[in-house]
Specification:
249 residues, Rossmann fold, 8-stranded mixed beta sheet, 7 helices, 8 strands
Length: 249
């Protein structure tokens, strides 16, 4: 495949928006504060999905030992580092070079080994992975279907895909876009509500790419519990998926 024929999924304006925030990715009180609050909730789902899919011990310290992991749209490595601490051989790819520079600078202080690269995922020559993660990214790409096909192309047979995204509902428009951006919870211009995918739409796209959804849970908010896994998917949801037995990427 030549460079001219490689799938193009990066939205340049979106990449520039997030690249401009690179210096604050690791500040839990900065522009990425919401991601810092989301991360433990995501990791709770991810850990359970990994143990279930690979038949691991829920008490094991390194459930990703001997597993390769690709985090697509990794930002400055907020998810990559805990995945590496779970024993994974982790690669992170992001559209914004500024984010990758911040990720490399941070991991250099952590004692972890993570491979980072910037640009189109299709152009990296990364091969296939046991686990592919993609958190809050699909709503920012040019072509969700083409993007999912790229995720599948990087998923090893028997592997696990983990993906989260906001739902397109009246509640998400009110709380994730209008209120959150006006109140400074997320930077202005972060979300385009029209690009959010409903669970039904995303499930259909995954099915077209040869995947079946294994589990799906909402990420909800309440004053008492904060952000937490829930049956309520009105704001945000996270899912695990695997290749159908008849599909070969």
């Amino acid at each position: 495949m030549t460079n001219a024929s490689l799938p193009t999924t990066i939205n340049a304006a979106e990449a520039a928006h997030f690249g401009a925030l690179a210096a604050e990715w690791w500040d839990p009180k900065g522009s990425s504060a919401m991601l810092h609050r989301l991360n433990p909730v995501r990791l709770r789902f991810i850990r359970t999905a990994i143990d279930t899919h690979f038949g691991g011990d829920a008490k094991a310290r390194y459930p990703l030992a001997d597993k390769t992991v690709l985090d697509v749209g990794c930002g400055a490595g907020l998810l990559c580092e805990p995945l590496a601490r779970l024993g994974g051989n982790v690669t992170g790819v992001d559209a914004a070079p500024e984010n990758i520079a911040a990720a490399k600078a941070h991991v250099a202080l952590s004692g972890l080994t993570i491979h980072y690269c910037a640009g189109e995922i299709a152009a990296q020559g990364l091969g296939q992975f046991d686990v592919v993660t993609c958190m809050e990214v699909i709503e920012h790409v040019m072509d969700p279907a083409a993007f999912i096909n790229e995720l599948v192309r990087h998923l090893r047979p028997g592997g696990l895909l983990l993906l989260s995204t906001p739902n397109r509902t009246a509640a998400s428009r009110l709380f994730l876009v209008e209120a959150a951006e006006r109140l400074g919870q997320v930077p202005r211009g972060t979300h385009d509500w029209d690009k959010f995918l409903t669970p039904e739409e995303l499930t259909a796209l995954l099915g077209d790419a040869g995947l079946e959804v294994v589990d799906m849970q909402g990420i909800a908010f309440s004053p008492m519990s904060g952000l937490h896994l829930s049956d309520n998917m009105a704001l945000n949801y996270i899912l695990s998926a695997r290749l159908r037995l008849t599909h070969r990427p």
